[in-house]
Amino acid sequence: MKKLKDFTIQFVGLKTGKHLFDYRINKAFFEDYGYDEVNDIDVIAKVEFNKKETLLELNFNISGMVNVNCDLTNEPFEMAIDGSFDLVVNFGDDYNNENEEILIIPHGEYEINVAQYIYDLIVLSIPSKRIHPGVMDGTLQSDILDKLEELSPKGKENKTTEDKTDPRWDTLKNLLTDK
Fold first, then answer.
1. Are residues 33 and 61 in the same domain?
2. Cβ(78)–Cβ(65) below 8 Å
3. Beta sheet of 102-106, edge-to-edge order
4. pLDDT at site 167
5. Over the range 87-113, which residues count as b (16 or more CB within 10 Å of their CB) and which as e?
6. Quick one: 67 and 83 in the same domain?
7. Same domain, 37 and 113
8. Same domain (yes/no): 22, 108
9. Shared-domain flag, residues 96 and 164
10. Do 143 and 81 fall into the same domain?
C-alpha cells in the first residue's frame, strides 16, 4: 500500500480555490486492491480539488482503456471507459463516511487519500456484462461462438417444429377453422 501514498492530498498548505491533480492508473494500482478482473488498464484520473473556507469539494473524472475478457467467448478486448463522481468533504467531530457523496473528517485532519474513490469509480465504470464488439457485429470468429450457435435452443426448435407436429394439436386447429 506504499504506492497509494501518491494519492494523498495534503490540503492544509493549499490556498483557497481550485487545484488540479492528475493520476495515471495502471495494472499495479489494481494489484494493491487484489482486483483481477482486468488484464491491463490505462486510465487517466483527474481530480479537481476546490478548497473553500469551511469545506472541500472534489470532482473525480476518469477516462481511458481497460483490457477485459469477453463474458461469452473469454477473448480479451479493449474497452473504453469514462466516469465522474463528486464528493464533498466536511469537517466534524468524528470520521463519518456513511453517505457516499459526503465525507466528514475530524477537525484536526490535514490530508485526504483519494485512491479508494478513484478505484471505486473505475470499477463501477466497467460494465458488469462485457461483450466483445466482434460478437455484436458478427466479425469475431471463435470456436466458442460456433459451439454456442450449434447448441442454442433456437436452432433445435426450428428443426423440430418444421419437421413434425403433434397430431393432437392438428385436431384442435381444425376446431378453429370449422366454423
1. yes
2. yes
3. 17-25, 40-51, 55-69, 76-92, 102-106
4. 76
5. bebeeeeeeeeeeeeebbbeeeeeebe
6. yes
7. yes
8. yes
9. no
10. no
Start-to-end CA span in the chain (Å): 80
Q: Which residues pair with 42 in a beta bridge?
A: 65
Mean predicted confidence (pLDDT) in 102-123: 92
pLDDT confidence tier of residue 13, bands split at 50, 70 and 90:
confident
107 and 40 together in one domain: yes
Whether 101 and 169 share a structural domain: no
Residue 178 pLDDT > 70, yes or no?
Answer: no
In which domain, by residue range, is 106 found?
2-131
Domain total of the chain:
2
> SS3 sequence, 84-127?
EEEEEEEEECCCECCCCCEEEEECCCCEEECHHHHHHHHHHHCC
13-17, 41-45, 131-135, 143-147: range with lowest mean pLDDT: 143-147
Q: Dig out the grid coordinates for 45 from the structure.
A: 484520473
What percentage of the chain exceeds 70 in pLDDT? 82
